[in-house]
Structure formats: structure tokens, C-alpha cells
Amino acid sequence: MERRVAERLCGALGPLGLEAHAARVGWYNAVLQPAFHLPYPDDTLAFVVLSTPLMFDKALKPFVNKERLKIIRDPVDQCVSHHLLRVKEKFPDQRVDIMFDYEMLPSRKPKFLAQTAAHVAGAAYYYQRKDVKLDPWGKKKIFGVCIHPKYGGWFAIRGLLIFPDIQVPFLEQLAPVDCVSTEEKRIELLEQFNFHWQDGRYRDIIEVKERYSEEQKTYFATPPSERFRLLGL
Q1: What is the share, in percent, of the chain residues with pLDDT greater than 90?
Q2: CA contacts within 13 A on the Cβ side of 215
Q3: What start and end residues bound the annotated signal peptide (predicted)?
Q4: Which of 22, 51, 214, 225 is most buried (most C-beta within 10 Å)?
């Protein structure tokens, strides 16, 4: 069942520059405090959805052109929402719950921790302070960051699809690729992400196979209120 669902998801999302990575809810819950647990049995099937560098041309620009006469508040969020809701329609006999990376609970906690989900699904390695043995930061707050073995930091985690009625007790967990494997590189990565994230150098901490186009870099480097002009809105 998991394989059939995965094939249908990949067929629908792949041409849009989106990827889906299978996981069991229990893998996610096992590494988090109860306050962040997802309220499903451990063997419930879930998919973490990533956007790759191709998403900008394959999904976002066509979406904006099609929706030009409608009210668009956040083009990327609305584009991803539109396509994941369409994917949900491909499973009329299944319940599909969707969580988006930008959604918050009433408590102001995120609905799911995107980077943790990507890590346990084997999609991208979540590098954190605990991955550095000789911590040079003292009392500074250091945030972690996911790195993809193909795209480096040139990708985003967009959502979580959960199939509450599908249990996959025998699904094998794939470890994420540890592509920033030396202590020096991990320190460099976390330094760049935490203190120089605007210049985007952390995204190229490894040799990447695909990165954002110059147009896409400009779009995401532009303040949100000015991005509409770049898309001709």
C-alpha cells in the first residue's frame, strides 16, 4: 500500500519540482518531547514534501499566471497549498490530513517541526549544535539547519501529508545522508546559517547538483511586499 501511495504522489508532485519522502509518525514522535507529538498511532503513514530548485519554474510561475486575476497573498504558500490539495483529491478513498510548514497551533507552536520531519524521513540531514563535539559558541543561541545531499541548502520543506487509515509497521527507516561529515564543515555551516544567513553561503556548504536560478535567488532575496512586482502582479 505504501508503495502504491508513494508512486501516485511522485507521479503528481515530481513534474512540479516537489518531492515526497515516506515516514512513520512514530519515528517523528520518538525524537521529540510529548508537547510536539503528532496525534496519530506510531505506524501511521506520512510523507514529508520538499520543494526543489525546479519548483519555481515548474509550479510557482504557472500558478501565478493562472491565478493572476485572483487575490494572492503569499504566492509560494498558496501555490504549494493549491497543489497539495489537488493531490489529496487523487486519494478519494483515503483520509489525507495536510499540515503546511507555515501553520501554527493556537499555542503559537508550529503544527509540525519541519526539519525534524525531513531528518527522520531520510530526506535531508538536520545539523544541530549537538552534532559538533567541540562547541565554540558558549551561551549563544544556535539554530540547526537541514542540508540535502543533492541540493545542499537550495530547497525548502513545505508540508506533511498524513494518511491516518494506512498503517505501515514494516516500513524501513532510511537514514538521511550525512553529507557535511567533518567537524570543521559542521561548525562552518552553523556559523554561516546563524550569523550570515542573508548571503546564502551556507546553502553551498557541499557541492550541489542543482541550485536556485538567478531569477529565483532574486525573488527570495527580495522583501515579501516587493515580490509581487517581480512576478508581474
Answers
A1: 82
A2: 10
A3: none
A4: 51
